[in-house]
Amino acid sequence: MATTFEYSSESEITRAILKGFSSDLNEYAESDVIVVGGGPSGLMTAKDLAERGVKVLIIERNNYLGGGFWLGGFLMNTITVRAPGQKVLEELGIPYEEAAKGLYTTAGPHACSKTIAAACDAGAKILNMTRLEDVVVRDQNRVGGVVVNWTPVEALPREITCVDPVALECRLVVDATGHDAEVVSALERRGIVKIPGEGAMWVEKSEDLVVEHTGLVHPGLIVAGMAVSSVYGLPRMGPTFGAMLLSGKRAAEVAYDILKT
Ligand code: 48H
C-alpha cells in the first residue's frame, strides 16, 4: 500500500464536508420515517425499515449512537438478553453465551457497534449532535415531523444568543428516546396527551408488555423501546435488552404497515 497521501488543499476538504452534509440534509428534510433516538430500539427500527426500502432518518442528540446498549447494569459492559432476544443477536452476527437457561450474555461494545453498523449498512441516514426540541403538529393534532436544533445550542446562555430550531417533515415519527419519552412528552407539554411514567422494576412482566404495547400511540407517532414503559406506565425491566431489540423490530413492522396504506 502507498504511504504518501494524495494532495488535497484545506479548502477542498472543507468543501467536501459541506457538500456531503448539505446534500444529505437537503434530501432528508423530508423522510418517510424519522426515528428519534439511536439506542438499541431506534437502531433496530431504522435498520428494519431501511432494509425494506423506507427512507429513514435517525436523530440522535449525542455524538455517538447506541444509547444504553454500550453497557449492561451498574457501568459493567456485559449485556444480558432473555430468550427469544438472542435471535436478534444471531441476525446481527453478534456472538453470545448462555449464562443460565434462556438467559444470554454478550459484550456491550461488540453488540452495540454491530447494531449501529447494521442500521448504517441498511441505508438509514443519521443526524447526530441533533436534539429533538418539539414536534410539528398538523390537522387533528397529527404529528407531521420534528423540530430540532444542534445539541450544543441548549448550553448557550439565552441572554447572549437565541438560535431558532429547524423542522424536518415525515410521514411517521418513532419515539425511541428511552426513559424520558421525549417526543410523546413534547405532545404532553402541549396538552395533547398525558403520560403516567414508568412503573417499578419487574423484569418478568415488563419485557412482554413493552413489546405488546409498541405501536402507534397518536396519529403520526409510534413509540418503541423504554419509552413504551413511560408512555403506558409499564414496569421497567432493568439491565436486560431483549425487549428493546424486539420492540424496535415491532415498531418497524407497524410503521411499514401504515406506510403501505
Ligand atoms: C435526540 C435523544 C433525545 C432527544 C434522548 O436510552 P436508550 O438506550 O433507549 P432504548 O429505549 O432504545 O433502550 C433503553 C435501554 O438502553 C435502557 O435504558 C433499559 C433497557 N433500561 C431498563 C431500566 O429498567 O432501566 O437510547 C435513547 C437514545 C439515546 O441515544 C439518547 O441520547 C437519545 O435517544 N435521545 N436524541 N433528541 N431529545 N432524547
Explained architecture:
This protein is an alpha/beta fold. The protein has a single domain, classed as FAD/NAD(P)-binding domain (3-Layer(bba) Sandwich). It is built from eight helices and eleven strands. It has helices at 10-28, 40-51, 86-92, 108-122, 182-189, 203-213, 226-232, 242-260, and strands at 30-36, 56-60, 78-82, 97-100, 103-107, 125-128, 130-137, 143-150, 166-175, 215-218, 221-223. The strands form two sheets. Strands 1, 2, 6, 7, 8, 9, 10 and 11 form an eight-stranded mixed β-sheet that branches. It is globular and about 60 Å long. It starts with 9 loop residues before the first helix and ends with a helix. The mean pLDDT is 97. Ligand 48H binds at residues 36-42, 59-62, 67-69, 131-132, 176-178, 180, 182, 201, 225-227, 236-238, 241, 244.
